[in-house]
């Protein structure tokens, strides 16, 4: 597999992997049609709770915290590791 280095392409890949990962875990997923804003996607978990998500690619370092708007909306980060192609929910401390 070729290693992708373009940050915009990595972000696109991260969102596609996140959608399929969420589907595999029983979520319904609704993706933001625009490229901007505090939320990348809205999902409904298997219990029927609505969640706002922002998908972030990372390689273990230098990940910024949520914005004030994201905190107010209770946006949760999903980390995508482009090396392993794995996703995980972030447990926010702030």
Polypeptide structure, described:
This protein is an alpha+beta fold and 94 residues long. The protein has one domain: Trna Endonuclease, Chain: A, domain 1 (3-Layer(aba) Sandwich). It contains 2 helices and 5 strands, in the order αβββαββ. It has helices spanning 7-24, 68-73; strands spanning 28-31, 41-44, 50-57, 76-81, 86-89. A 5-stranded mixed sheet has the order 1-2-3-4-5. The longest helix is centred in the first third of the chain and has 18 residues, at 7-24. It starts with 6 loop residues before the first helix and ends in a 5-residue tail after the last strand. The mean pLDDT is 89.
Regions with pLDDT < 50 over 5+ consecutive residues? none
Structural class: alpha+beta
Question: In the CATH hierarchy, what is the class?
Answer: Alpha Beta
Continuous helix count? 2
Q: Largest sheet at a glance? A: 5 strands, mixed
Could you say how many structural domains there are in total?
Answer: 1
Average of per-residue pLDDT values: 89
CATH third-tier fold name: Trna Endonuclease, Chain: A, domain 1
User: Tally of extended strands?
Assistant: 5
Question: From the 3D coordinates, which CATH architecture would you assign?
Answer: 3-Layer(aba) Sandwich
Question: Rough shape?
Answer: globular
Side by side, the strands of the main sheet go 1-2-3-4-5
Beta-strand content: 25-35%
Helical proportion, percent range: 25-40%
| Straight-line distance between termini | 37 Å
């Amino acid at each position: 597999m070729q290693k992708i280095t373009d940050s915009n392409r990595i972000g696109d890949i991260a969102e596609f992997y996140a959608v399929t990962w969420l589907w595999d875990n029983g979520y319904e997923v609704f993706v933001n049609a625009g490229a901007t804003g505090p939320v990348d996607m809205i999902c409904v978990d298997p219990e029927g709770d609505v969640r706002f998500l922002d998908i972030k690619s990372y390689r273990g370092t230098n990940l910024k915290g949520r914005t004030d708007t994201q905190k107010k909306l209770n946006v949760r980060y999903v980390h995508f590791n482009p090396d392993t192609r794995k996703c995980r929910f972030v447990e926010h401390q702030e």
